[in-house]
Design brief:
Elements lengths: L4 H5 L7 E2 L3 E3 L6 H15 L2 E2 L8 H4 L8 E3 L11 H19 L1
Parallel strand pairs: 1-3, 2-4
Length: 103
């Protein structure tokens, strides 16, 4: 995120597909706000956001965040939630949208 200014200034992020995920040390630790804040910056770049929305039940199993997968981590950074299926779904959705756009 911090190193994208040069790419943005050169227009190299326009029409790129992206999606975001996040973690926090406590449940309800601002994960949704973090993701929406990321997306605000990404809109400035001209990217195409591929959020997961409520497009699969795995979203609910991992906490129900429609903006992107989020997880709780312990003090050592170990993920405490079972989010693998949500991550796989979000990655596949981002890939599928990219393929539709580039076809």
């Amino acid at each position: 995120m911090d190193q994208c200014g040069g790419l943005w200034a050169q227009g190299k992020l326009v029409n790129k597909v992206c999606s975001a995920m996040t973690t926090a040390q406590n449940p309800h630790g601002g994960q949704e706000q973090t993701l929406t804040s990321f997306y605000v910056s990404m809109f400035h770049w001209g990217v195409i956001i591929a959020g997961p929305g409520y497009t699969d039940d795995v979203i609910f199993a991992s906490g129900g965040n429609p903006y992107g997968t989020s997880a709780t981590v312990d003090g050592e950074g170990n993920i405490q939630d079972d989010i693998q299926k949500a991550v796989e779904h979000q990655a596949k959705r981002t890939y599928d949208i990219t393929n539709k756009i580039s076809s």
